[in-house]
Amino acid sequence: MPDTKRTASGVLGGLAGLVGLSAVAGVLVAATVTPAIALSGAAASSAITMFDNLPSVLEIDKLMLPSTLIYTDPSTGQETEWTQFYDQNRSPVQFEEIAPVMYDAILSSEDKNFYKHGGIDLVGTASAVYDNLRGTDSRGGSSISQQYVKNILVQRCESNAKAVTEEKDGETVVVTTLEQALANCYTEATTASGDEGIQRKLQEMRYAIALEQKYSKQEILLGYLNIASFGGTNYGVDAAARYYFGVAAKDLSLAQSAALAGMVQNPNTYRIDMKGGTTTDKDGNPLNGEADGYSLTKDRQVYVLDRLLADGKITQEQHDAAVAEPITPVITKPTRGCESTGGGAYFCQYVVSIIKTDPAFGATLDERMKALRQGGLKIYTTMDPRVQQASEAAMTQYTPTSIEGMDFGSTSVSLEASTGRILGIAQNTRFSEDASAAGDPNISSLVYAGDSKNGGSIGFPAGSTFKLFTLIDWLEKGKSLNETLNGVNHVFKRMTNSCYGDWVNTSNTKIGNYNNVGGYVGTPMRFTRDSLNSGFLAMAEKLDLCDIAKVVEKMGVTTFDIATGDAVPIQMQYAPNVIGSSNVSPLAMASAYATVANNGIRCEPKAIDKVVDRDGREFAPQRTCTQVLDPGIAATAAYALQGVMASGGTGAQGNPNDGTPMIGKTGTHEQWQTWLVESSSKVTTAVWVGNAEGEVPLAKQWYKGLTLNNLRYPINKSIMSTVNDLYGGDRFPDAKQELLRQVLTDLPSVVGLPVDEAQRQLEAAGFQVSVGDAVDSTEAAGLVASQNPGAGKVAGGAVVTINPSNGNGVTVPADVAGRSVSEAISYLRSAGFGNVQPGSCTLEAGVKGNGQATGTNPPGGTVVNRNATILVDYKSEHCN
Fold first, then answer.
1. Angle, nearest 10°, between helix axes 144-159 and 178-190?
2. 764 near 758, Cβ under 8 Å?
3. Is residue 721 within 8 Å of 712, Cβ to Cβ?
4. pTM over 0.85
5. How many Å apart are CA 150 and CA 155, to the nearest integer?
């Protein structure tokens, strides 16, 4: 153990150190201007005053500490440190957590009188200042207290270091890299020469004496070993021990302790993790690498061992054994950054993006990055390792990292409906932020599941998954899932949009249905099951596009501004917006469907449960749960969406069919993007497969026996099989009965209207029109003579057959009865009927002559062609 007791002279030295050093400092400073051996009293007094006026209070800043991402296994409660982010790899320890031999090694080699002096080694300091006076560089002569001061100042500089750029010829040019800025901090603190070096050394001395008055020797020694650099990004003896030798600081051997103690003089030269060497000799040959047995570090180690032997801290036998032992690094790199997390890298990167943007971590980006890389935060993520592993496995099994001839991409994201907690994110590509990987189609730093703010992706056209919002607005307007509409594909020319005027022109061309089906007269329930574009356009035609946009907004779905990359509301300006032409994030769509599954309560997605800072205080980015849909509306929407996942629905292939009730929706955009969003009452998973960029048809590309547009099904099915096993799922609430009612529609009369006007009016009312053959009618030729069914209450969207008039129709008179047969025939002929014949006769006594007319066939009032045969029925005493 190191000697922890000060001698009497040491105590006196500490008390008198400031006075004594002031005098020495006066001499040293005066020597820079008066190179005489004897200085005048005035010069010495001036120098002493200069020293006394130097700042004496040095605040010990908090150590720069790594921040750690943590996840918890819900089944066991086991917490796992996932990865770290740091500028300095450091794991601070308490005094008793460092091997005693390490204390002996650092004291014997750096400051053997540490427990005897008052903060500085006057002889060593004087020697160092003398070297500066000669213009030579000096790194020696400093006590442990002075070195602690130097490290505090270096860390303060490094904690605020940043790259420096400037604009040149319209381009941003890096003047000083971050690495250079960090190196400058060390250089400026340790290698200044001349007057500047003297000033630095005197300030060190002044601070060191002040530290000795405030802190114990043990606190200073421990502080130094926790802050000191040991090469690269390794700071503090425990992190160095674990990195270079794979052991904790308390378990260091004599040889290992001597090697580490030797490093502090020149950490980046004596580091032992660079097999090719850390420097070169005068001929350019590598030095201090695996080939020469880390010769420079070995020399320093031997020097430390020699000092330990001279101080009586080790025996000759221990010394010789440690000298004979080769330096054998056991490099144990800590998990650092998202890339080290493998398939979980995109979840990790999403968390990092939150830290970069959320004000809970700091007011500015610099403050937030400092918190991440230096703040020692424990960040507890929402990731469920079981769901994450299942997601990664499904993505690996069913998607390649790239496909030749296209920029192929795929992602999945799962979140808990009742909390918004993101449970897993997987992506087909490999993660890297290395600029040299740019252009490799297998690698991406973008989080496809996220958006431009969190993850860097601009999203993808949602296709028919976006129909959810028209469905919700339809139900919120009190309309029934069983209302019959004309879903036959046609041109939808006008739709109401109160945000942009009373109505907007949509398009003069048809918007095709999947597989070019023609559509049908049907209900929103069936349109949802079949994902019929023309059916949803028929629904939207009866709604207000502006109101649909408001549904989108309240359910948390946005698009992005191409100029700024910021999230902006989706503007429902045209018919294609109804069927998902806007770019949205998979996470936002998953959240929207989770809202339906969660009885209309939208919980904002969150990837961080809590954060614990270095002082034990807890905080978390603010996320809320809000009732945005009436529970009855959510239940009825779920009722319709269950049809999608049932047999015959477009999402049936993705249903695990494990007995868990499922809702969902498929989506396809122009054959380039495909989606399946699927949910139990507990967990929602969104899967996207498509073109990360470009427009290559997915149905023409194959992978493992499936066309790319069908990969979404097995991915989602595989993930949800695991999710349902872990989280289960309840029966969805019953739909509101009033939203399932049979709806009758007013069918107007169009008789007497021109055929084209009649057709327009009927179609505008939501009916399908069939134009039949021309019929005899008293209407002018070309006008509608009849319609079937006739005007009244009928099922909406029914087919109405209209028949135009040929202009040849004559109405059979209704006043024939009572006339004699001969009079009746003459009367009809005079009315323009050319073929009038006696008809059927009924025997009746007392009727004289040729009989009395009883009516006609066709009956009076009937419209017939004027050349039609008219039979006059009569009664008579004598029927032939």
1. 150
2. no
3. no
4. no
5. 9
Residue 133 has pLDDT above 60, yes or no: no
CA angle 544, 549, 553 (to 5 degrees): 150
Tell me the two tokens of residue 602: 């939208």
User: Comparing C-alpha atoms, which of 820, 819, 829 is closest to residue 870?
Assistant: 829
Comparing CA positions, the residue from 95, 150, 151 lying closest to residue 125 is 150
C-alpha to C-alpha distances, 164 to 97, 117, 173, 361, nearest whole angstrom = 40, 42, 9, 24
Over the stretch 524-564, which tens digit does the pLDDT of each residue have? Answer: 999 999 999 999 999 999 999 999 999 999 999 999 887 77
Q: Report how far residue 299's alpha carbon sits from residue 789's, in angstroms, rounded to the nearest whole number.
A: 105
Dist. CA 657–CA 654, nearest whole Å: 9
Query: Distance from CA of residue 587 to its chain's centroid?
Result: 6
CB atoms within 10 A of CB 677: 32
- Edge-to-edge strands, sheet with 869-876: 835-843, 869-876, 852-857
Rounded Cα distance, 188 and 399, in Å = 52
Alpha-helix runs per DSSP H in 399-450: none
pLDDT more than 90, % of the chain = 67
| Mean of pLDDT values over 850-858 | 92
Query: What is the spatial distance between Cα 296 and Cα 284, in angstroms, rounded to a whole number?
Result: 15
Q: What is the 3-state secondary structure (H, E, C) of 318-335?
A: HHHHHHHCCCCCCCCCCC
**Segment (H or E) for 568:** strand 567-568
**DSSP letter assigned to residue 797:** T
Which two three-digit tokens encode residue 191?
């290698």
φ/ψ of residue 36, rounded to 5: -95, 155
Report whether 70 contacts 378 (CB < 8 A). Answer: yes
- Evaluate whether 69 touches 334 at the Cβ level (below 8 Å): no
